[in-house]
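Supplementary Note 3. Input sequence used for the single-chain structure prediction.
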Amino acid sequence: MSIWGRVIGGFIGWSLLGPFGIIIGSIIGSKISSKARLGGFGTHAQPQQVFAVAIIVLSAKVCRADGKISKAELLAVKDKLKIPENEIDNVGKLFNAAAKESSGYEEYCNQLNLVFANAPQVKEEIINILLYISESDGVDVRETNLIKDIAKNLQLNENQFMGILESRKESDKLNPYIVLGCDPEDNLQDIRKKYLLLSKEHHPDVLVAKGVPEEVLEESKKKMRSINSAWDQIQKLKNT
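The predicted structure, written as C-alpha cells, is reproduced below.
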C-alpha cells in the first residue's frame, strides 16, 4: 500500500507534537501550544510516515546548504519518494516550509532517534537517500558535510557514515573494507560475521518491517548489493 494519501494528509489531520508538528501546523495555520511542543510524535504516527516526512524535511535543509535549491534536487525528492501528482502541492508546502525555517535539524534528529531507537539501519537509510538527493545535481562538499553532521545527530558513528558513502560507489570502485566497517587485518571469519549481520539488518523485508517505505527500497537494494559485492571482493583478496 502506498504511503501517500496517509502520510501528508494523515499528519495534517493528526495532533502531532515536536518539530514536525510545528512545521505542518504552520502550513495549515493551526496552533500548537508550548506545552505540546515539548512532547514527541503523536501515538498515531507510523514509522513509515515519519520516515517519509523526515526525508522531505531534512532534504530541504540539505538542498539549501549550497545557497540554492536546484530543479534536479526537487525532481530527485519526487522520484525517490514516488510522490503522486495529487500530493505534489502538499509535499511542496512542507518542503518549502522546512527550507525557510530558521532553526536547524538537530531537533528533527532527536525525534527520529526516539522513533527509530531500535532501528539504526533505518537511520542509515535516511542518510543514504539524503546523499542520493544531494548527488542529483553534482557532489557539493557543503551538502555532504551537512549530511555527515545529520548522521552524527542521528547517533551514527564515523564508520557507519563512511560505509554508507562508500557503498554509493560502483562495485569496482568501492573499498570493501569500508563498506563492511572492518579492517584489512581482520581475519575472514570475523569479517564474515560482520557481513552476515549487515546482510540481515539491511534486507529489504527487515527494513520495511522497521519503517522504511517500500517506495524507497530501490536505493536500499543498491546498498545491499554493495554489501554483497564487498564480501565477494574480500573473499577473493583473502584467498589469493
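The chain has one domain: 8-238. DSSP finds 14 helices and no strands in the chain.
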